């Protein structure tokens, strides 16, 4: 366990530096933006120069950039992400309200692409070069080439509007008053299409990686030995080949988390899912600098945490321990 | 006037405009309204401030008008186009210095406190006059509000203010907020701005950001046997393409403000159980305007502006961009306004040859590649139609040798670029006509407006003669004299083209057929829906 | 020649190469076949495909020629894909090589910056960047590049680390070559092939990201893009589905072509290296 602790400590130290760079970067980017939150507010409200000036003063936007940055950093240290202009509430509250929906979407989509991708990868990789291998790899690649938003649009028309099997957007039936299992079922129904749009696309990654990994393991000595000993093919596939090819896929989970988060921005827009991605779009549209900074920061933290978890998982499943026993 | 909404595919048969609709009594639906039920409507944005007394905009009214009521509402049949709400009668003095309101008795706020003249006085002096976007213009000379008793409010003005203007402003500008909740603390920070408290038929229940607003029936509402509905839910569907699907899948009952794209109306009108209604927006007319930056030397030349006006095929705009759900503009006042509209203004017909000749005459010959000069074109991002018109205008300008570069911005950046930084040559704006030139179209051409005021003259145009006319009209008390001045105003604007009026349009409501009493007043989408009901 | 023959032996690679060739032909011939601005109004609005042979794929909401849009859109997609990939590989190779060669604090700093860029979801970064800098072709390319250079940087660094200790580098050091000269003349050329192998993935991702940005309304309004066409068609998805389907299919085919051809290339070069 000490090894895990050391890993965590090393990662955390690195993460703080990374976060600092993220904060500086996004702050600079948004400083360069034309139009600030007051301009955005005035769009909807209307107002004259004196009111605009007053708002700038009240929201601290009349300070110098350096001062604002210093204030921002010091409040971050107290886990205060600032105040959202668009929502007139603390950023952290707004973000945390949306975060679970995005986590649910991302988590389900990741699970879908990982499980289905791995399974199909095993199917494809168990007979390298066969028709089904070729079909699955090309088919998954074709899916990987589909823009998520376009797939979403098509699925909505088919399954929600034409067939009416599934709801066409949102995260749950609005103001339904459902609780417990009924609510969970309701949310699951709402998640089917967005999760499919997001998850099916990334399936190819796992499928192809699994297949490539298996192709390599097939050539290894212990597999050749097992085959020589006349062990059933299915058993070899599952116990030896797939098992050893699975580990690198776990690292992929971490690497893909940022891409999934990015992909969910568009998917949330297509399916009106009130998540972090749509919040980011709203923040961009209303020039809510502090909120957008907060979202980027929270996503960065999320990605760091996922990667940390993946590292720990990987350490726990150290390949050298598992495979050496088998190979003997 | 009836050609305002050209129902060119017969989609809207039976619901053409004003004339026909005023003749449509509620009795047409010869059914007894059933009570109860939940109405789910599409909302495309989530206004952060829901106080209509501060933010008099349609996005806010759409939700807040059911909760917070004005003194009077627009009406197809009422005298002067008005119907009483919180005021039962109103009267202006001959000198234009006072307006008296008789207020409704027996009205209570949603928290149980009685509604009195003190609330009206407070709203007028503390909110409308200093804080409201439009109230600042109309009530700028309001000095005091006398409250001789609990149900009388007398507005006193320092300078003569036309009663006609006050009357026209009643539906949009006079939402009354409770004094007892707003008198403590900063009005701008009051919690009731996000969870409004009013006297309306519905009480504000909850807002789930990104998901919905929920309003509940007000059992103590003053209207007899009203409201009919138990609940109204505004489902947030920021994506315009989603509303049509949601209606068909029966996930929502109603989509107002053309939330269903115009191009989809023909198809959806044929879906059983769905109706398409074009009335109910008569007092919410939008104008499609090309704003011009007169600081650009080419555009300061009237001939160039005329050439641009001649290059625009308004017919194409109406037919293809608005699919017939609009009408071509002749000048700064829309045809729908029977009070002020004048057709006797110089017209700029679609004539590319003439446009080219005018530009040659002005000295801007075509250079190599056929281009005379280049400019930046900023379409406002608020509506599909403004963006599409931007695409069209770029092409129309190319025909006369002007190379327009489109600059797309989000709302905030557009606002800043056009109205604060003046970093545009041409811009496309959807401006609202608010039933009186004094609070709408004059602001777009009048000089001396400070930088940064949105939807105002920020193009650097200054015409002392026009300014004098506008100032005079603002003080003229006699309605007919006032109208005559605005007729002059329309002629001068059409002549000198400080901006180009292209088209004017109202919106379309698409609803399930089970929703009744839809579009029964000229501001229906932003009125209180107390009589709307759903068939069992 | 052998490589070419090997490349041509896999049907997938051939299919990919054909798609890319078609795309390239479309992009290059766009102005020749459709000399008019593809955004100009060419006919009646919402004309369905195969009705009028002068407008074979029909027209959109404003009457713009869909086929012309498809051709000119190919140009945009290709330009964005290639420019973003070139930018990402250039930045990645330089950063990775410098980090790997310099080591120490410089390496640490450069790699933390790489980490930071990898930690922020690329699409979120692109969204923020375009919304700040304003939508134009150049900003879209930069925005995509910002999120794409980290992969090449990591691979370049890893390659450099392994090359750094090889004999010929040590030799160059001994004869007194300037370190920068060593980096760019000896190390970078050898570290580049594995980095270049990433290019097809980057091109494909760039094309998809551009489409998604255009879809959200953050594309260059003066240029036709497939993503923008899909977004426009979305409002009439039910009554005129072809407006979203045609550019969508073009996108899928293009990206698939890039993947297939890229994979074929990588396999061919891998086989060549194994044989060498």
If you had to describe this structure to a student in words, what would you say it looks like?
The complex is a heterotrimer of chains A (328), B (536) and C (276). Chain A is mostly helical and 328 residues long. Chain A has 13 helices and 2 strands; from the N terminus they run ααααββααααααααα. In chain A, strand 1 and strand 2 form a beta hairpin. The longest helix of chain A is centred in the middle third of the chain and has 39 residues. Chain B has 536 residues and is an alpha+beta fold. Helices cover 27% and strands 19% of the residues of chain B. Chain B has 15 helices and 21 strands. In chain B, a hairpin with a 5-residue loop joins strand 6 and strand 7. The two termini of chain B are 37 Å apart. Helices cover 76% and strands 0% of the residues of chain C.
Oligomer: heterotrimer
Helical fraction of chain A equals over 70%
Helix segment count of chain A? 13
Q: Note the gap between the termini of chain C.
A: 15 Å
| Residue windows where pLDDT falls under 50 for at least 5 positions of chain C | none
Class per helix and strand makeup of chain C:
mainly alpha
H/E element order of chain A: HHHHEEHHHHHHHHH
Q: Measure the end-to-end span of chain A.
A: 26 Å
What would the average pLDDT of chain A be, to the nearest integer?
A: 81
Given helix and strand content, the structural type of chain A is mainly alpha
């Amino acid at each position: 366990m000490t090894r895990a602790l050391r890993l965590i400590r090393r990662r955390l130290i690195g993460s703080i530096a990374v976060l600092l760079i993220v904060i500086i970067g996004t702050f600079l980017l948004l400083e360069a933006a034309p139009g600030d939150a007051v301009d955005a507010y005035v769009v909807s409200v209307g107002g004259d120069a004196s009111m605009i000036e007053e708002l700038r003063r009240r929201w601290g936007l009349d300070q110098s950039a350096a001062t604002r940055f210093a204030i921002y950093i010091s409040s971050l240290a107290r886990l205060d992400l600032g105040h959202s202009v668009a929502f007139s509430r603390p950023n952290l509250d707004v973000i945390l309200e949306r975060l679970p929906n995005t986590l649910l979407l991302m988590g389900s989509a990741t699970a879908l692409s990982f499980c289905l991708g791995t399974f199909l990868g095993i199917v494809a990789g168990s007979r390298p070069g066969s028709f089904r291998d070729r079909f699955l790899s090309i088919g998954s690649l074709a899916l990987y080439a589909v823009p998520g938003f376009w797939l979403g649009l098509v699925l909505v028309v088919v399954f929600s509007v034409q067939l009416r099997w599934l709801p066409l957007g949102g995260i749950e039936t609005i103001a339904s008053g459902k609780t417990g299992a009924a609510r969970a079922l309701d949310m699951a129904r709402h998640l089917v299409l967005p999760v499919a749009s997001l998850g099916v696309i990334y399936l190819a990654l796992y499928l192809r990686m699994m297949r490539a990994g298996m192709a390599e393991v097939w050539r290894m000595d212990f597999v050749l030995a097992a085959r020589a000993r006349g062990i059933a093919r299915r058993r070899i596939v599952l116990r030896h080949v797939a098992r050893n090819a699975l580990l690198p896929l776990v690292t992929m989970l971490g690497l893909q988390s940022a891409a999934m988060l990015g992909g969910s921005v568009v998917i949330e827009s297509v399916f009106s899912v009130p998540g972090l991605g749509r919040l980011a779009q709203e923040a961009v549209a209303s020039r809510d600098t502090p909120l957008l900074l907060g979202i980027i920061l929270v996503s960065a933290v999320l990605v760091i945490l996922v990667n940390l978890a993946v590292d720990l998982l990987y350490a726990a499943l150290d390949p050298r321990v598992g495979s050496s026993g088998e190979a003997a | 006037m009836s050609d305002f909404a050209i129902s060119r595919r017969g989609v809207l048969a039976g619901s053409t405009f004003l004339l026909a609709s005023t003749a449509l009594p509620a009795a047409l639906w010869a059914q007894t309204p059933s009570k109860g039920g939940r109405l789910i409507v599409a909302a495309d944005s989530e206004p952060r401030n829901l106080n209509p007394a501060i933010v008099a905009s349609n996005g806010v009214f759409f939700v807040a008008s059911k909760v917070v009521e004005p003194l009077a509402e627009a009406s197809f049949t009422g005298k002067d186009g008005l119907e009483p709400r919180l005021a039962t009668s109103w009267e202006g003095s001959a000198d234009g210095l006072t307006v008296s309101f008789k207020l409704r008795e027996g009205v209570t706020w949603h928290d149980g406190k009685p509604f009195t003249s003190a609330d009206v006085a407070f709203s007028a002096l503390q909110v409308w006059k200093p804080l409201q976007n439009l109230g600042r213009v109309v009530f700028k000379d309001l000095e005091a509000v006398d409250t001789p008793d609990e149900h009388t409010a007398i507005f006193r003005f320092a300078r003569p203010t036309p009663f006609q203007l006050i009357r026209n402003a009643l539906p949009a500008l006079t939402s009354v907020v409770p004094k007892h909740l707003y008198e403590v603390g900063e009005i701008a920070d009051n919690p009731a701005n996000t969870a409004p408290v009013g006297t309306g038929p519905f009480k504000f229940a909850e807002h789930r950001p990104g998901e919905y607003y929920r309003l509940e029936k007000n059992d103590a509402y003053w209207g007899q046997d009203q409201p009919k509905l138990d609940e109204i839910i505004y489902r947030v569907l920021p994506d315009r393409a989603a509303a049509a699907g949601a209606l068909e899948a029966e996930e929502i009952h109603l989509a107002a403000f053309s939330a269903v794209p115009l191009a989809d109306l023909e198809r959806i009108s044929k879906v059983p159980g769905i109706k398409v209604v074009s009335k109910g927006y008569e007092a919410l007319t939008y104008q499609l305007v090309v704003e011009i930056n007169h600081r650009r030397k080419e555009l300061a030349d009237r001939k160039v502006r005329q050439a641009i006006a001649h290059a625009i095929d308004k017919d194409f705009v109406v037919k293809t961009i608005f699919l017939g759900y609009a009408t071509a503009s002749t000048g700064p006042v829309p045809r729908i306004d029977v009070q002020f509209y004048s057709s006797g203004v110089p017209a700029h017909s679609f004539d590319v040859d003439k446009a080219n000749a005018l530009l040659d005459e002005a000295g801007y010959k075509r250079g190599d590649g056929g281009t005379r000069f280049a400019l930046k074109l900023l379409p406002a991002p608020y509506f599909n139609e403004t963006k599409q018109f931007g695409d069209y205008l770029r092409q129309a300008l190319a025909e006369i040798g002007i190379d327009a570069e489109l600059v797309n911005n989000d709302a905030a950046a557009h606002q800043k670029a056009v109205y604060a930084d003046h970093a545009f040559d041409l811009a496309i704006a959807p401006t609202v006509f608010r039933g009186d030139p004094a609070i709408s179209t004059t602001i777009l051409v009048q000089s001396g407006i400070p930088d940064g005021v949105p939807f105002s003259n920020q193009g650097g145009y200054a015409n002392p003669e026009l300014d004098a006319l506008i100032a005079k009209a603002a003080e003229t008390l006699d309605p007919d004299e006032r109208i005559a001045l605005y007729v002059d105003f329309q002629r001068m604007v059409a002549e000198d083209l400080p901006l180009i009026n292209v088209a004017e349009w109202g919106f379309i409501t698409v609803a399930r057929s089970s929703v009744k009493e839809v579009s029964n007043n000229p501001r229906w989408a932003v009125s209180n829906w107390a009589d709307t009901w759903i068939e069992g | 020649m052998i490589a070419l023959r090997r490349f041509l032996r896999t049907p997938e690679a051939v299919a990919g190469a054909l798609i890319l060739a078609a795309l390239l032909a479309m992009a290059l011939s766009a102005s020749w076949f459709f000399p008019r601005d593809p955004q100009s109004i060419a006919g009646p609005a919402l004309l369905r495909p195969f009705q009028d042979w002068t407008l074979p794929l029909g027209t959109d909401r404003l009457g713009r020629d869909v086929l012309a849009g498809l051709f000119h859109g190919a140009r945009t997609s290709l330009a964005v894909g290639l420019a973003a990939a070139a930018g990402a590989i250039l930045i990645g190779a330089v950063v990775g090589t410098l980090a790997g060669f310099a080591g120490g604090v410089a390496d640490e700093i450069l790699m933390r910056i790489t980490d930071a860029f990898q930690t922020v979801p690329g699409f979120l970064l692109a969204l923020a960047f375009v919304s700040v800098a304003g939508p134009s072709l150049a900003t879209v390319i930069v925005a995509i590049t910002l999120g794409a250079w980290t992969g090449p940087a990591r691979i370049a660094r890893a390659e450099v680390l392994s090359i750094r200790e090889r004999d010929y580098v040590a030799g160059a050091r001994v004869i007194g070559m300037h370190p920068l000269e060593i980096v760019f003349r000896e190390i970078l050329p050898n570290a580049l092939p594995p980095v270049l192998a990433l290019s097809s993935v980057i091109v494909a991702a760039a094309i998809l990201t551009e489409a998604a940005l255009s879809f959200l309304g953050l594309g260059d309004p003066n240029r036709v893009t497939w993503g923008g066409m899909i977004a426009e068609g979305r409002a009439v998805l039910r009554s005129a589905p072809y407006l979203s389907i045609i550019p969508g299919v073009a996108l899928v085919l293009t990206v698939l072509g890039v993947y297939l051809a890229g994979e074929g290339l990588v396999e061919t070069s891998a086989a060549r290296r194994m044989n060498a």
